[in-house]
Amino acid sequence: MVRVVDENDNKPEFLFPDHQRIARGKKFYSAISEDAQISTSVMQIRAEDQDSGLYHEIVYEIVSDNPLTRSYFTIDKNSGIVSNTKTFDDVSPTLLPFRLTVTAKDNPKGAPGSSHVSKIPLIVRFQMLIFSMLHLTSLF
Questions:
Q1: What is the C-alpha separation between 110 and 87, in angstroms, rounded?
Q2: How far apart (Å, rounded) are the C-alpha atoms in residues 64 and 81?
Q3: What is the pTM of this model?
Q4: With left for phi above 0 and alpha for psi between -120 and 50, is residue 73 left, alpha or beta?
Q5: Residues 58, 48: Cα–Cα separation, whole Å
Q6: Residue 5 within any structural domain of the chain
Q7: 3-state helix, strand, coil in the chain (%, to 5)
């Protein structure tokens, strides 16, 4: 009898939406309205892992060198949906664009040191009001 057991030998790889294929493997870009309400979805980050079983499971986290920048956003650890945690009324121009790093970690329930972590930058800008106005008028 032969028993095949998977080992955790692959890192999570980020998946890019079609409109961001040109930046594949480098960064995620997104935009949010300056007047967005709390919990507005910014984007969904997705990654996959070629391993199977527990090694295939992925959890997400946002990290940042600047805690103030980090305080504006959260990510659902299972779905990868990034949203804002507060309004942007008091954002200092020095924080813009928001520069974050998203991590994707496989084997989240494994022993320490048994997981692989992939990181990628996420740049979030404010939507330009003029673009929003043009888009709205083109709908009518």
A1: 36
A2: 17
A3: 0.84
A4: beta
A5: 7
A6: no
A7: 20, 35, 45
Report in angstroms the alpha-carbon separations of 93 from 16, 40, 73, 89: 28, 21, 17, 11
Q: pLDDT digit string (tens) for 14-40?
A: 998 776 666 555 899 999 999 999 999
CATH no. for residue 122? 2.60.40.60
pLDDT bracket for residue 53 (50, 70, 90): confident
Bridge partners (DSSP) listed for residue 44: 81
Task: Compute the distance between CA of residue 116 and CA of residue 132 in angstroms, rounded to an integer.
Answer: 40
Residue 56's nearest CA partner among 19, 85, 13, 89 is 13
pLDDT for the residue numbered 7:
84
Say if residues 95 and 69 touch (Cβ distance below 8 Å).
yes
One-letter amino acid at 23 equals A
Which structural domain, as residue segments, surrounds residue 25?
13-138
Q: Is residue 108, in this structure, part of any structural domain at all?
A: yes
pLDDT in tens, 80-136: 999 999 999 989 999 999 999 999 999 998 888 889 999 999 999 998 654 444 544
